[in-house]
Structure formats: structure tokens, C-alpha cells
């Protein structure tokens, strides 16, 4: 539904899933905030967001990719630190306090999951989110 909302607002967002529908028990407003942050960042820095979800019996895997400049390898973990921003001179028109990634990761971790970042081959960044499925 987040992807549909952003598409309705004119953003370039795609969504693919290996499952038609998946129910997940968690704090809905917090999860919406986390996923909105990751998708917004993809649009802000990479003009598009490509969201893909896969699930098995143990975990849900969500990837959010963009076509932006990526992040230097030595800063992939630092962007989760409060108030940290990748060299603001690279994108001076983009504002923010540097808390979104910190808060989003904490939300995912509070649900027993984790978030990692990977530079994509060619161009862009992938946010990889894993959430456990309670048994």
C-alpha cells in the first residue's frame, strides 16, 4: 500500500513480490514509518524506488533499490548513526537531520529484524530488510 500511495503521488516506484499477500504482526505505524523512510530515501537520492519482497517460513526479505550514486563502502554502516550524513556537498539541495536511517533501523530491529545496505553493481543502493516470521 505504501508503494501504491507513492505511485498515486507521481513517484517512480515499482513493487514485486513472490507472494500475493502476507500478514505480519507488528507495530503498524512504526513499520510504515520505517518503510516510508527507506522508500523516500531511494526516491530522494536515486529518483526511483524498486521494492521487492520474498518470504519463506522463517523470514521476510524486502529489498529497496535505487539508481542513485550509492554510498562509499566505508560509510555503509555509518549512515545508521544519529545525525550522520554522507558528504552533504554531494547533494546540497537535499536536506535532513540525519535521523531517518537511525530510527528506521531501530524500528526494524525492535521487531527482531535487521537492515543492511549494499551498493548495486553499476549504480545505486539496495536497502536489505529482514524480518522474522514468528512460529
Report on the architecture of this protein:
- The protein is α+β, with helices and mostly antiparallel strands and 135 residues long.
- It has three helices and five strands.
- The protein has helices spanning 2-8, 28-46, 100-110; strands spanning 12-17, 48-55, 59-65, 114-119, 125-132.
- A five-stranded mixed β-sheet has the order 1-2-3-5-4.
- Strand 2 and strand 3 (59-65) form a beta hairpin.
- Helix 2 (28-46) runs antiparallel to helix 3 (100-110).
- It is globular, with a radius of gyration of 15 Å.
- The protein starts with a helix and ends with a strand.
- The model has no long low-confidence stretch (mean pLDDT 88).
Secondary-structure blueprint of this entry?
Blueprint: H1 2-8, E1 12-17, H2 28-46, E2 48-55, E3 59-65, H3 100-110, E4 114-119, E5 125-132
Parallel strand pairs: 1-2
Antiparallel strand pairs: 2-3, 3-5, 4-5
Helix pairs in contact: 2-3
Approximately how much beta-strand content do the residues carry?
Answer: 25-35%
Form type: globular
Strand order of the largest sheet: 1-2-3-5-4
> Mean pLDDT, nearest integer?
88
Major beta-sheet overview: 5 strands, mixed
What letter string, H or E per element, gives the SSE order? HEHEEHEE
Amino acid at each position: 500500500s505504501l508503494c501504491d500511495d507513492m505511485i498515486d503521488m507521481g513517484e517512480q516506484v515499482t513493487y514485486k513480490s513472490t507472494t500475493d499477500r502476507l500478514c505480519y504482526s507488528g507495530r503498524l505505524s512504526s513499520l510504515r514509518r520505517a518503510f516510508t523512510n527507506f522508500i523516500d530515501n531511494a526516491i530522494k537520492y536515486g529518483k526511483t524506488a524498486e521494492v521487492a519482497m520474498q518470504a519463506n517460513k522463517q523470514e521476510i526479505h524486502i529489498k529497496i533499490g535505487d539508481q542513485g550514486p550509492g554510498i562509499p563502502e566505508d560509510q555503509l554502516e555509518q549512515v545508521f548513526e544519529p545525525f550522520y550524513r554522507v558528504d552533504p556537498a554531494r547533494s546540497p539541495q537535499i536536506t535532513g537531520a540525519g535521523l531517518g536511517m537511525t530510527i528506521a533501523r531501530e524500528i526494524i530491529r525492535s521487531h527482531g529484524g535487521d537492515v543492511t545496505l549494499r551498493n548495486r553493481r553499476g549504480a545505486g543502493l539496495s536497502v536489505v530488510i529482514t524480518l522474522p516470521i514468528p512460529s
